[in-house]
TrEMBL record:
It holds the Pfam family HIT. One of its GO terms (molecular function) is catalytic activity. The active site is at H105. It comes from Roseiterribacter gracilis. Residues 9-119 form the HIT domain. This is Histidine triad nucleotide-binding protein. A motif (Histidine triad motif) lies at residues 103-107.
């Protein structure tokens, strides 16, 4: 497991060192707009605790943190008005998934038809 780097950009946003307007600000989860959106709605949901990725979060977060974070993702999708038409939640974990920031974050993408998740292996 990789160790947590408290100088990562999301940790700095959570501490208020880097300004980033919050679309959700809760005790266990904060949501911000992605600066390079891949869909009309592209939000990042950050847990407020120091977790490198989903594996780290699943292993170390308290039940209270896990429940609050998962519920926040659903609530944020509803507030963003993508719940009825559909949305995708993506967690990138580690280098093969192209995780760019070593702080757990969920991508909520919606606002249009997103197409297939991945190309088939035989293509």
């Amino acid at each position: 497991m990789r160790s947590y780097d408290s100088s990562n950009i999301f940790a700095r946003i959570l501490r208020g060192e880097i300004p980033s307007p919050r679309v959700h600000d809760g005790r266990h989860a904060v949501a911000i707009k992605d600066i390079h959106p891949q869909a009309p709605t592209h939000l990042l949901v950050l847990p407020t605790g120091n977790y490198v990725d989903f594996d780290d979060f699943a292993a170390r977060a308290s039940d209270e943190e896990i429940v609050a974070y998962v519920r926040a993702i659903g609530s944020i999708a509803r507030e963003a008005k993508v719940a009825d038409s559909g949305y995708r939640v993506i967690f990138n974990v580690g280098p093969d998934s192209h995780q760019e920031v070593p702080h757990l974050h969920a991508h909520i993408l919606g606002g249009r038809a997103l197409g297939p998740l991945l190309k088939k292996i035989d293509e």
